Amino acid sequence: MRNRDYYRAFGFGNIEAKRGCYKPCGYCAEPAIVGRDVLTQDIDCILAELRELREMGITRVHFSDSEFNVGPPKFTRELCKAMIREKLDLRWTAFVHPEPRSLSPEICRLMRESGCTEITLSVDTGS
Asked: Which domains occur in the chain, in start order?
């Protein structure tokens, strides 16, 4: 993991669970930069990285995915459930897309229970 000293100094780290976005938003460069295919990390690998951050004294994490809840339908649900099972005692934030099927009440509840304290909505999506 790079930037360990910076993470330790501020008690804050970044992690990427998936990369890419299939949405056709005309203003967004994400698909041109990383592609339209959404590639996910293995959940066990994500948990290992989160445990490593926690062992370093990190208490807050930002998921730097372009849209935390966009991608394979079960991925966000399964990741949140795994984070709940792990009891990592981390608080986290993320960018999310406000569409009902990927930001359902169940997903919101799981995000909160897994430590999510803040979301940033991409409300300008409409193209």
From this structure: 4-121 (3.30.750.210)
Q: What pTM was estimated for this model as a whole?
A: 0.86
* Paired tokens of 57: 């004294």
Each residue's pLDDT expressed in tens, for the chain with a length of 127 residues: 566 666 666 678 899 999 988 777 777 788 788 878 889 999 999 999 999 999 989 999 999 998 899 888 899 999 999 999 999 999 999 999 888 888 999 999 999 999 999 999 876 655 4
Q: Which residues of 93-124 are buried (b: 16+ CB within 10 A; e: fewer)?
A: bbbbbeeeebbeeebeebbeebbbeebeebee
What residues have CB less than 8 Å from 114, skipping those under 6 apart?
Answer: 79, 80, 81, 83, 84, 92
How many Å apart are CA 70 and CA 103, to the nearest integer?
9
